[in-house]
Amino acid sequence: MPEITEKELIAQIKSADFKPVYLLYGNEGYLKRYYADAIIKKAVTDFADLNLHRFDGAVKVDDIIIAAESIPMMSDYSCVSVCDYNFATAADDEAEKFVELILDVPEGCVLLIRLEQLDITPSKSAKAKKVFEAVKKAGCLVKLDTRDENDLARMICKRAASRSVNLQPTGAKYLIRVCGSDMTNLFSEVDKLCDFVGRDGIITDEVIDSLAVKTPDEKAYKLINAVCARDTDRVYTMLADLWAQCTEPIAVIGALSSAYVDMYRAKLAESEGMRAEDIGGDFGYGKNAFKLKYASQNARRMSVFTLREALAVLRDADISLKSTQLDPKITVDKTVMKLIMLASGEKLS
Description:
about 60% helix; about 350 residues; alpha/beta; 16 helices; Rossmann fold; about 5% strand
């Protein structure tokens, strides 16, 4: 069977009409865990101690085979859950036995393979390709990647509503920009904000600013806003906050560099008459292409040549931090001042 969609997986779970084997992969850990748990809950209807067999990380395929051959006890299915088994680097005989099991899963067993921390792609490994092809033939491949901004916003608004808390789509999108697009982290932040405002409360941008744990990218985004606005006082207040939070200088330069790359790409896209987010696929942004939309707002204030100079300044700062004994915080301070000068249209000496 070819790769199935999330919607098709949901239908199979609801009907409990399971295929012999599933392989859940992709970059959204929350969804992989959520659907793995849903499959297990629906398949193993009773006596989980006897009918559910879990394997994590390093494991012998013979142990997986023995578990798969166990007859379901007072349950519709038995389930063998295999998380982060690195079949791409397994010994040849182990990988071959794993493929054979996939192609001939014992009746009554659901073999559930999940890549949680591992990023295995069939194009980079012959063994991985065999496993993926075997799953396609005998069961279902399900790729679960990061949702786009609109989908994420709908989900976290719905989660807040389930707790009788008002979170508007604009606020949800602001929370995504502040906290990133990882669903596990987002849901945790929403739950925390709901607890703070209480039943019938409202999650405003001010509440998000005061309580949400911001990602390095968001800190860089706000810092760049201040840089582009040439607000020196705000810039150095924000840097002081970062040092108070024990943020590593190299992390600040890294986040600034990433943000300026976004701005540069957005600027070039718009100079060719395109929307910034339209080029996301060309640079591997995936569902995070919305970041380019925000980057374009600051990019409009500077020329392509100014952005190139800024990237050169950040490159030099990165080299300095990694190769000299200078105080790293002073290096960051000087770098940020150069960025403010460029944003003001001044020439660097």
